[in-house]
Amino acid sequence: MHLLLLLLVTMTTMTSTSRVLELSDRFLDIRKDGIWLIKFYAPWCGHCKKLEPIYAHVAQALSSTPVRVARVDCTRFPSVAKEFKVDGYPTVMFVKPTTTHTYTGDRTASEMISYAKRMMGPAVREWQGEELDETSLVYQGERRGQWWEAFERVANQNQHSVTFFVRDAGIGGGGMEITLHHTPSEDTPPLKFHQDSSSSEDLTVSLLNFLTRNKFPKFLKATRNNFQELLATKKLIVMGVVEEDKLGNLNHEQAEFLRFFEQFVKSEEGDFESHQFCYTPTPSIANSIAMTTLPLPSILVINSTTYTHFILSSEINSSSLHAFLEQIHQSELTPLGGSSLWTRLYRSYYELTTNLGLMFSGNPVLTTILFGLPFGFLSLICYSVFCGGSVEEEGDGEEDHEKED
């Protein structure tokens, strides 16, 4: 019966190039049957069209898993969009019988496949000591008590971004502990969680804060999708700014800079524990923070607590970068930016003018029409309101003179 209903609900588009199911509003009747990865889209949305081949590749890769990959046209079935509180396109959600989660990662096939495989299993998995291939939080000990309950709560909240494992105390020896593992494991030893409080609620909050602060490796790629999570670490964000071309490649100078920057992070291991190092291939992220167009490559340091920032203006090398970070640590440099009203207003102005410039450079004719026509109509209205009366008065004056003559 469920299979028949599924066939009625889906108008399958499983051609040679796609295994994506097309859902109708009848999906609401069987949403609790199985697990789903669903893309909510609109046919007119350019971002949706750009995601389409990537999503088809995701469906192909997940065809042998229990995850059903599907999509919903929200213009035809608005009731489905309303049920899942969709407010933008495209929106990708992982739907389980009792929970739903909105995907916020990079819109690449590898990231979405990894996300779906992580979400389709239980929040906490068994670990027998095998090699870990992604950031993982491992619980070792008895599966009861406050520590275990706190671990399960945090796992249910963060399954989308971190893999959670449980390991019996007898396998590895030792007592109860929670450790955070990054990859590759040989470069970064696991971090051990410490908690003295006996309160279950405090323990959960403390473990969540520990994970939030430390879940990223020492050096990573910063994107629009993970940048807010980077700020949530409450560390100093040391960002290398480069720009990739359409094929994802860097020019020689920027590639050399990135190799230097990564090597610097490895060589300074342990010296800057309160720093999170990263690089972004999207300069607009850094430019929006700095409220100016940064030269490439650049070093930008962001205080994730005060939202101030610092820009390395001298030549970039190991000694200048080390001295720059030390000066920030010693509060010897004047911070820029912040969260004051004036700064927020100026940032809004900068982003507005930047976006208008990008629109004009991308399509000058359409941008001119888009803003020129309303401005022209507004000019005519203003002219008729403020100048029309004076024209009539001049005309009346001329008629009076003619009568006198």
TrEMBL record:
Compartment(s): Endoplasmic reticulum membrane
Signal peptide: 1-17
Pfam family, one: Thioredoxin
Topological relation to the membrane, as annotated: Single-pass membrane protein
Top-level taxon: Eukaryota
GO cellular component: endoplasmic reticulum membrane
All residue ranges annotated as the Thioredoxin domain in the record: 3-121
SUPFAM superfamilies attached to this UniProt entry: Thioredoxin-like
Functional note: Probable disulfide isomerase, which participates in the folding of proteins containing disulfide bonds. May act as a dithiol oxidase. Acts as a regulator of endoplasmic reticulum-mitochondria contact sites via its ability to regulate redox signals.
Protein name (Swiss-Prot/TrEMBL): Protein disulfide-isomerase TMX3
Record has Lipid biosynthesis as a keyword: no
Chief site of localization: endoplasmic reticulum
PANTHER family: PROTEIN DISULFIDE-ISOMERASE TMX3
Keywords, ordered alphabetically: Isomerase, Membrane, Signal, Transmembrane, Transmembrane helix
Molecular function terms from GO: isomerase activity
